[in-house]
Amino acid sequence: MNIITAVDERWGIGNKGDLLVRIPADHKFFREETTGKVVVLGRKTLATFPQGVPLPNRTNIILSTNRDLVVKGATVVSSIEELLQETGRYRSEDVYVIGGESIYRQLLPYCDVAHVTKIDFAYLADSYFPNLDEDDEWSITADSDEQTYFDITYHFYKYERAEKRS
Predict the structure, then answer these.
(1) Which class would CATH give 2-161?
(2) 64-74 residue pLDDT tens
(3) Could you give the CA distance from residue 140 to residue 33 in angstroms, rounded to a whole number?
(4) Strands 138-143 and 113-119
């Protein structure tokens, strides 16, 4: 599985249920990576989408402890085991974990590739992604030149787990 996120320099990903910043090129990268693929997200992340509806042109799988949750246009699972069974129907490289913090932390052990947009600024954040730079299991295998959006600088990084899961 893949994981995809945008983080600030302290690995913050959000504040009060919203993104820290919106960068059009990051959104474009996200769309290009995930369109036609499977996205895995939590209920709180779904609630941040326009009208709270699943992302179009993707297979949406929502992981929620609420067993009664029904989301039109999405599959809802209530455990990691159920999620792994559901995602097992797809090629691992076509599955993208897209947040939020709790979902990232629960599913990072099952992922082999992380696409991380790193923003060179520290925002006020209340949710964080695990710092892959401090995790010996992960290393950067690709990075972009420095990107800018107004006064914001950022890079696209690809991290890969040293020993892939099978």
Answers:
(1) alpha beta
(2) 999 999 999 99
(3) 18
(4) unpaired
